[in-house]
TrEMBL record:
Superkingdom, taxonomy of origin: Eukaryota
CDD domains: TLP-PA (cd09218)
Keywords: Disulfide bond
SMART domains to which the protein is assigned, alphabetical: THN
SUPFAM superfamilies (alphabetical): Osmotin, thaumatin-like protein
Protein name, per record: Thaumatin
Disulfide bonds: 17-225, 63-72, 77-84, 131-214, 136-197, 144-160, 164-173, 174-184
Length: 226
């Protein structure tokens, strides 16, 4: 029997927050995986990931199931269910992005704040030798600028928008006349995120210090509120 084509990674997703969260996934390419589930504090769940695969992982919080419709105040995907079923996160949301590659190639992964921030997160390779950790371990909500802050009904900050999401201007979104690294440098807003989370993407052209690689076949621990 030929096992050469059988290749997968395992994502272990842990909730280290003091409240319940609802992690979710969005597949960009590759076979589909579970699109959402709930995690109580200190609980974890594993997903067997197909390879090759690319997509993102994030987490929702302040969730309720009023009138039989599942909804979260932060990171919601709008599906009305715990599973996001192919829908992405409404920004702001901290995104963990992966490209899992076939055997003999490299995996790529990053933490992105390009769409803003909602929860701290870390990504740790559990068995890849020399595979760096990336993270955004700081609660940016606690320091978010007023013009970027998203608040809940009680006035608490539950998300911090990126300047692109908040203002939708080309110089912040690296669009139009600003659609290249030369014409879209860091801004005061992206530097605010970068100073707090140096390993995370703070804007579109933040590749040099924000994308990490690991030998394919590694398993990954994704911890929210590390």
């Amino acid at each position: 029997m030929d096992f050469a084509g059988i290749h997968s990674s395992v994502f272990t997703i842990k909730n280290n927050c003091p409240y319940g969260i609802a992690p979710a996934t969005l597949t960009g390419s590759g076979d589909s995986v579970p699109t959402g589930f709930e995690l109580a504090p200190q609980a974890s769940n594993t997903i067997n990931m197909p390879v090759p695969w690319s997509g993102r992982v994030w987490a929702r919080f302040s969730c309720s199931n009023d009138d039989g419709k599942f909804h979260c105040e932060s990171g919601d995907c709008g599906s009305g269910q715990v599973g996001c079923n192919g829908a992405g996160a409404a920004p702001p949301a901290t995104l963990v992005e992966f490209t899992l590659s076939p055997a003999g190639q490299m995996d790529f992964y990053d933490v992105s704040l390009v769409d803003g921030f909602n929860l701290p997160v870390s990504v740790v390779s559990q068995d890849g030798v020399g595979c760096p950790t990336t993270d955004c371990p700081v609660d940016i909500n606690a320091q978010c600028m007023p013009e970027l802050a998203v608040k809940d009904a009680s006035g608490g900050t539950i998300g911090c928008k990126s300047a692109c999401v908040a203002f939708n201007k080309p110089e912040y979104c690296c669009a139009g006349d600003h659609s290249s690294p030369d014409t879209c440098p860091p801004t005061n807003y992206s530097q605010f995120f970068k100073n707090l989370c140096p390993k995370a993407y703070s804007f579109a052209y933040d590749d040099k210090t924000s994308t990490f690689t690991c030998n394919s076949g590694a398993n990954y621990l994704i911890t929210f509120c590390p």
